[in-house]
Amino acid sequence: MNKVESVVSLTDTVLSDDLSQQSKRSASGALEQEESPEQVQQASIPRSVVICILIAVVFQMVATPRLLHRAGVTETDLFEDFLAKNIMPNLEHGWDRLNASVSMASMAYSANEEKRPGYNIAKRGAVAKYPIVMIPGYITSGLELWSGEPCGRKYFRQRLWGSLSGAHTFFTDLDCYLKHLELDPITGSDPPNIRVRASQGFEAADYFMSAYWVWAKLIENFADVGYDASTMTLMSYDWRLAFPILEERDGFLTKLRFAIEALHKSRGEKVVLLAHSMGSSLVLYFLAWVTREEHLGGGGGGADWVDKHVHSFVNLAGTLLGTSKSAPALLSGEIKDTVSLLGPIGTVTERYFGRKRRKDLANTWGSVWSMLPKGGNTIWGAGADLQQSTDQNTSVPMHFVPLQSTQPAPIVSFTDSRSASNTPSCTLQQNTSIEHNNPKNNTYLHASHLQNIIQKFSSKANRSIDEVIEFLEQWGNGYGSTLSAANLHSFKKKDQLTPDLWHDPTSTPLPYAPSLKIYCLYGVGIQTERAYFYKRNCGENGDLSGSNCDNTALNDPPFIIDASVNDPSRNIKKGILFADGDGSVPLLSTGYMCVDGWTRDTNGLNPAGVNITTREYKDKQEFQVDDPMRKGPESGDHVDILGNVHAMEDILKVVTGFEVETVTTHLESDILNITDRIRINLLGRSTVT
């Protein structure tokens, strides 16, 4: 038996092991009753297939490298053979079974009415009242191909993102797949001859791949209290685009305005805006846009437009102050899930869909730039949400900067002891793909200038968020200031409020809307990426433990996360420092504006005194046989919060106006102490300076 055949034989074993481990972790005792083999098999179907699908679609090669590693496969040709012989047949063969299984699970959820908050609150008298406009978050809307290169024309009007055909293309023709998903780095819009657009309707984001529910549960619970397509709508959009390009290319902001006005007029009630994740950031941008005059780049709705048409804004797990993981995505194409793939696993993943390709793709997406941390060193540099270590003997470089320090807490720390003023000179290897990918040959930075920018950034051991963003703007993944996303976003406060600041709630006040209500709902209690340890990327030339990296050429990306850094006592794992959050967005981002930024009278960010209600949901994970891919009805996970029974009930109370007086601020985290520390830190620095 060769290695590939041994991988095939391991597939069912490994994936069934995954299911078994989840079953053992069940805290609810739901599996105490013995299940039949048919039940276990049925539960394992969606997990095994969806793992493969999610690998393809969200670029987090988890199960496949694990199988390869177990079988000893490390070569690219064997990897491709494995994909062709095992993964793709399993995807195609199991798809019908998967859909059948998901359909049965959905039917079971629909049939078991007592499980649904909508059914229960309707029994108590709740009925549909305020029209609902739903705005999805990052990556959750399907993307369809409308025109493309010859390799992709067979997928006309099929989903490149969010479907089996997209997963198939990812595995069988990665170059074609990426060519159609990337944007023009200079314009921030479509590359020549390619048009990819968001799917429309509830189907655009109710399920991901027809298997992984996103908005489906909320939609069904809304239906329980009387909502239908005439009283609610889902405004999907191309989540790759920077917000200004959404309006420029697709007219999305204009469409959103008219959808709100139409629902208000037809139903006679103001609208509830319900947004998730990056969708909340988009809503804030929209509120700034719609109230500004057209000659200032706005929508011309008038200063009182929000007060006239919007009843409330429900911000569900919103990326209000961005997310830390955007920084490494742009710096090196890495996140927690990719860094954890070490040894042969990491080698195979890197060869198939490596850091450089991930980084290059992310830098063309303006949305990733829009989710860079906002608030700068004042908020993120205070380190108020980080665990302070008192162990002076630790070998790990100190990452947390104590309060009232004159130096901000870094978001990037270089572990190379030579990454100081005496760092040896390094050069960046010639990137042979740049001219091929560059639509304008004269837009790429000169090699010597690029080298100076990189050298300067790595010459200091610790870099704050302000410094990281400044580097990203100068570097622009090699395009410098010509990179569209870098030009469309500003992270520095100005005397005048310009459109490039509308994405930042620490610079852009809420509209003057005295009757508006804002509800901030988000999960807490899950370790979430917060800061990173980096090293220079010398590749095969050596590593930072020896001298081979000195005076040599760096690879692209020039820096990579140093996964050898671990310190559990300080929440550092594989080169990543973790803090409280919902698993994707740090608590600092989801909570700061809601409990402090918009509630302080002195900063001018809430001129009308809009009422802000904040509700946190402590993560309680629970394995369920009928929903094995998710973390249970009380999960605080970033996506699972869309199905959290308590969050859904609170949302239902807001949109129906029924028992809404019970939806009051409830905090489970340390967010109030965190905001106090930020104020103390700011006062301390002011005193020092």
TrEMBL record:
Q: Where is this region: Disordered?
A: 18-39
Q: Tell me, what is one Gene Ontology molecular-function annotation carried by this entry?
A: O-acyltransferase activity
Q: Which GO terms describe its biological process?
A: lipid metabolic process
**InterPro entries, per the entry:** AB_hydrolase_fold, LACT/PDAT_acylTrfase
Gene3D superfamilies documented for this protein: alpha/beta hydrolase
What the entry lists under PANTHER family is as follows:
LECITHIN-CHOLESTEROL ACYLTRANSFERASE-RELATED (PTHR11440)
Q: What is this protein called?
A: Phospholipid:diacylglycerol acyltransferase
